[in-house]
Design a protein that fits this description.
Order of helices and strands: HHHHHHHH
Number of strands: 0
Shape: globular
Number of helices: 8
Structural class: mainly alpha
Largest sheet: none
Radius of gyration: 20 Å
Helix content: over 70%
């Protein structure tokens, strides 16, 4: 069994074993946008004993066997970009319109009783617009260059100078998306329906919780696997070209 230490980053821990994300979700530890923090630092920020998390991680490693768990760290760069687009971008394009429609219905029905629903609808709408723009930039600017680098020798033409430039911008937008998720969780008491909630309201909160989980996985795969791997490959090729 792989040894886990408190000095490893949260992102590294999930990258090497995605099933560990269950532990971080349960303790509300950010492993996507906050994936560059060490486990010790993340636990300190949350006021959780690091030994408690280490024990939970060891338990997951010993007991969880998920045949559908993707080994994204082993995927070539082009396959990983395709995986992100086909699974996570497609999910967002399918789910966000449905969730916005549900949110509008819930606001119309219960807005007078629950004034916070107006803020929830506004936050979801803003997140939807941000993610639509974000995905378009990835699919038309960043990912094509990463695929080209994976499929041919040498360095592809990079109109933005280096992959680090658009990647820094994408990571900043991930932070903004994480903030939107956090705001929705705060507004809904971690997506917990009130006793009087109708089925539409319950369906909305269930969908938003699923959105949070999928977007955490989505951002993790980019911030902690795809982006570092792509930048490392670019640096390797630049070094090889310089020394040729």
């Amino acid at each position: 069994m792989t040894t886990i230490t408190a000095e490893q980053t949260v992102g590294e821990l999930v990258a090497s074993r995605p099933s560990r994300s269950r532990v971080f979700e349960a303790f509300h530890i950010d492993y996507c946008c906050g994936g560059k923090r060490s486990l010790r630092e993340a636990c300190h920020t949350k006021g959780i004993g690091v030994d408690r998390i280490l024990e939970a991680l060891v338990c997951v490693d010993a007991n969880v066997s998920d045949p559908d768990e993707e080994n994204c760290g082993a995927m070539p760069l082009d396959e990983l970009t395709d995986h992100i687009v086909e699974r996570h971008h497609a999910y967002l394009r399918r789910e966000l319109p449905r969730l916005n429609q549900l949110a509008g219905k819930v606001l119309n029905a219960h807005g007078a009783k629950a004034p916070h629903l107006a803020s929830l609808v506004e936050t979801l709408h803003a997140l939807t617009q941000e993610l639509a723009c974000h995905m378009k930039k990835e699919e038309t600017i960043l990912f094509p260059v990463i695929r080209q680098m994976a499929q041919s020798p040498g360095l592809p033409f990079m109109p933005f100078g280096s992959l680090a430039n658009p990647i820094n911008a994408m990571e900043a937008e991930h932070d903004e998306a994480g903030g939107g998720l956090g705001r929705m969780a705060e507004l809904t008491d971690d997506f917990t329906p009130p006793d009087w909630a109708c089925n539409t309201y319950r369906a909305l909160l269930d969908g938003l919780h699923e959105l949070e989980q999928d977007l955490h996985q989505h951002i993790h795969k980019e911030n902690n696997i795809l982006f570092p791997k792509a930048i490392g490959e670019e640096q390797h090729r630049r070094h090889a070209t310089t020394n040729a």
